[in-house]
Write a structure and sequence with these properties.
This protein has about 120 residues and is mostly helical. The longest helix is centred in the N-terminal third of the chain and has 40 residues.
């Protein structure tokens, strides 16, 4: 009986890990779309290479960020988001940065949650 009662808790914890991965992908897409929009709004092209140069990252790191695979350190993240066109002084930009920091700092630990629930 206890095993049946625990199944939904473990499944919920596993679903949380999936949702965190999806959220990382969504955050990357927001950055990619913002970069593309800023390119259309300006005369110069805002490529991944240009963002990389402005943020002191390598272009593959920018690509990994946009694909939800990598979130850089705090200082690099601020430079990256600013280079993509976010204003980190506005509530939306600040919250977006804070969410990315949370995902970076907590995602691996949250994967352990299903293992930590009692049987």
């Amino acid at each position: 009986m206890a095993e049946q009662a625990n199944a939904p808790r473990k499944a919920s914890a596993e679903l949380l890990a999936i949702q965190i991965h999806a959220l990382k992908l969504t955050c990357g897409l927001v950055a990619k779309a913002t970069r593309a929009y800023k390119t259309l709004a300006k005369s110069e092209s805002l490529t991944q290479e240009a963002v990389a140069t402005a943020s002191s990252l390598a272009q593959p790191q920018v690509s990994d960020f946009e694909n939800g695979k990598f979130i850089p350190s705090n200082a690099e993240l601020d430079k990256l988001l600013t280079a993509c066109g976010f204003d980190l002084n506005l509530p939306g930009g600040k919250s977006y940065r804070d969410l990315l920091k949370f995902l970076r700092d907590s995602a691996e630990d949250l994967k352990e949650l299903p293992k930590e629930l009692p049987d």
